[in-house]
Structures are given as structure tokens and as C-alpha cells.
Amino acid sequence: METRIYIKELPCYQRKGNASEKSIRVMERHFYNLELLEAEGQKKEMEAFIRSRGNELSMTTVDADIILYNVAARFMKEKYPLLDSFRAIPEEVLVKKFKAWLLDHGYQITRKHFMKSMGRNLQEEAGPVKYLRLLLQFLEPEDQRPEWEKDVWNLENLGFEVRQNPIDIIRTIKFTGIRQEAIKEEVKRASYIRIKYLSVGSLQGEIRAVRRFSEFLAERNPEITSLGEVGRLNIEEYLTYINLERGQERNLKTEMANLKDMLQQVGKVIDKPKLGKLFIKQDMPKAPEVVFKTYSDEEIKRLNYYIVNMEEQVARALILHQMLGGRISDTLTLRTDCLYEGNGHYIVRMYQVKTSYYEKPVPDDVAKLLQKSMEYTYERYGETEYIFVNESNPSLPFQYSTLKHRVYALIHENDICKDNGERMGFATHLFRHCYGMKLVELHLDDAAIAHLLGHRGVNTVYRYRRASGKLMVKETEELRKAMDEILSEIIKEWDGYEQVFQNG
């Protein structure tokens, strides 16, 4: 076995990427020293891992890994020099020991990482810890079990289509983190039934709720190994724990409802119907009051000043989103046949994940922007189902996570601030709130507003009416007036207005 693995010997060196000539000359001298490890088994495993990363990742990443490798190798040499495999010790045990060793040697075990897609710093495990976890994951033997028996499901391998939002594709469901093996298996069996009629996002919420309950049981009731052993007293203890000790940082009503639903399904699977009756009505916390937020006119102008200079199709999507007033999923799933003419004006059809579709008249400017967006996609991708497509897979719509990441990067790079001087956040729903507020200010009835917003009923319209008097300030009257005139024209030209709303 070679004791040195040079960067220049790995496939990543041939790719080089955007590295400068000076950097390349420096990196070609760098190497991994396998002699830092004692056991031959550890050397073989690490060599395979290094070569795998050298084949898949960039040269700069693989070069930076050397420092992380050196730290992990020092730890293994000091603590487990004779261990034949990194996997001879349970992952969490080894990681825990590694973290303690890092602290003893003056290393950090966490770091702050600015997440552009969220616009804020997140706490995450430090580089050496993440590197060790990646190694252990690489060494995990391939799971030969049927997909529904695995701890991580690849949804494409389940053999049937699952329900999910096309702009936010979820590819895997993980059951890792459920501490009790029997509970994990019970939840997998229940999930295999629920995923056939429940959306993937909703199922993930239920699994998260069980994962947190599992942590509580492991800490407070370690004798419980199956959900069939859970009783009403355990639920009462958990409610106290989650309210007092875990704090109110989450929507507890949703979390408890998710746990209740999964317990009910598990009860059916393991023939323990009592599980579906462990929660009572009084257990459900009140839902937190929704804070109605919106952008001011000045903030919209400030953000759009930079948005219009983004990559052209992304800019079009964001501007159309504001002008159409739909959910972001409605905008990103606009079909290439969504626009047609009726009674002398343009009509756009918008599909919804939550319902089916709705139609609304649009002014010529919006129609032209839609047509330009279609032309862009046809020229680059040919005939597609969606106007705004995933660049790597044009059969899918543009992904919301990608859009959010780019806008947050834009805000961060240009230091775009709110009226109060704080760094601006980004939520596409705020544009929708602005649109709804404008409709309220036009004194339209609730049915008209609900239709233009794509709501099936009028129940949510009251939020716009309640917020209108509280939040809207006369800051840019000129801009407002222009927007109001556009909306007024839309309503005025809508021949079917009265009939539509008389029919409910």
C-alpha cells in the first residue's frame, strides 16, 4: 500500500477547475500521509475514502480535506491505534469521543455558517466532525433490503409515484434519529401506508414529531422500546416537557397533531388501537397568532431595483410573481399553455398544489412578459410543460430552494435593507400579501379578492382587511396609484365578474 496519496495523482487534479496556475503548483506538492494511522484496516478504509472524494469533488476541496484528515488521524492514533475499522465502534459513540478529544486539544466542535438560502447564520458541526461523519457514511455497507425496510428511503425506488410539491422536490425520507429500533420499524411500516395518500412534506413532519418524542423517551423513559408500550401518562409527561423544557420555538400545535396522526397509524399497524386515543382535545396547544407581514412600497422598489438585474429568467419569474399575486408554486408551475385570449383581453390559468386551477384576466404588460418567458424557454430547452424550468432537468419546474438561494445571495451581496435599516429578509408570500392589501384598498368585495388570490373561499380574506388599516402607510403614493389603476382596469374589463361572484 502506498503511504502517500498526492493530489496530483487524483482525477480531481486533471480537472483543475478555476484554480490559478500558482495554486495548482502549490497543491500538486500536497499529499495525504497514511502513516499517520496505525492499523492497516484504517489505512485501507481511509485510502478508499480519499480516492473516492478525489474522483467526485474539486481539487481545491480535496486539498482542503488534508487538514481535516490530519486531525482525524491524530485522534485515531491516540485513542484507537489498534482498531481495525472505523466502523468497529457505533457512529454516535465514536463522534462523541472525537468531539471530547477536539475540545481537549483546543479545537471547536461547532461553527457558524451563513446560509444564503435562509439569509442568516446557522450553527453546524465543525469541519473535522463533518469529515469523520462523511467517512463513516462512506464505509456504511450497502443496504440490500427492499427500499421500504431501509432507514433512508430513496423515493424513486419505492415503485410508485408519491405526492409532493413540484417546485420543492424531496428525494429521500430518513428514519435515522429514531433512537429505539422497534419504534423505528413501527414508524417505517406506518409510513409505507401513509405515503400512498399523504404528501411527502406532511409525512416528513410526522416523522420529525416521532423523532423528538423518541429522544424524550430515550432520556426519560428508556425502558420503553415500542410505541405499543406508550400510555397516557407518557403523553402527559411529554406535553409538560415540550412546553416547559423545550420552549416555544416551534408551532407545537402542528407538532402534536403530527405525533397524534402517526401514533394513530402505528396503532393500526401493530394492532394497538389505544394509540389513537392517547391525545385528548385539551392537549392541543393554541396555534400561535399569525403575524401579518408585508413589504412597504419603498422596500418593494428597493428590492426590485436589484431583482431586474438578476439572470433574466429568474428576474421575470419574480416580477411575474408580484404582478400575478399567486403563491410562488402557482408562478413556478405556470404551464406553457397558460395564456389565452378571451373577450378581447388576456386570461392566465394558474395551477395550484393545494386545489386545482384558477383563471384571472391580466393586462397586456403581464401577457407580454409571459410570452417573453416562454420564448426564452423554447429557445433553450425546446417544448416543455413549464415556463420556468429546472436548468438541470427541464421536465421539472424551477426549484423554490434555488430561487430563494439566489435572492438571499443578492440581498447579502448588495446589503439591501428594510426601511428600519435592518438587513432585508425574503419571503415570496410577502409579495402575495402586498397584492392582497392592494385589492382591499380598492374596496373589492371578499369574493372578488378570494378569486384573484386563488382562494377557494373567503375565510382568509379577513386577514387582509384587518391588516390593511394597521400596516399600510402612504410612502410612495405615486407607485400605489399606478398599481391601483392597473388592478382597477383588470376588474373593469372582466365581463364575467358579477356572474362569477353571484355563483359563489
How much of the residues is beta strand, in percent?
Answer: 5-15%
Count of helical segments? 20
Low-confidence stretches: 439-446, 448-455, 461-480, 486-504
Give helix and strand order, one letter per element, not per position.
Answer: EHHEHHHEEHEEHHHHHHHEEEHHHHHHH
Structural class: mainly alpha
Cα distance, first to last residue? 77 Å
Helix content: 40-55%
* Global geometry: globular
In CATH terms, the superfamily of the largest domain is: Intergrase catalytic core
Radius of gyration of CA atoms, rounded to a whole number: 28 Å
The mean pLDDT is 81
CATH class of the largest domain: Mainly Alpha
Q: In the CATH classification, which architecture of the largest domain applies?
A: Orthogonal Bundle
Main sheet attributes: strand count, strand direction, barrel closure: 3 strands, antiparallel
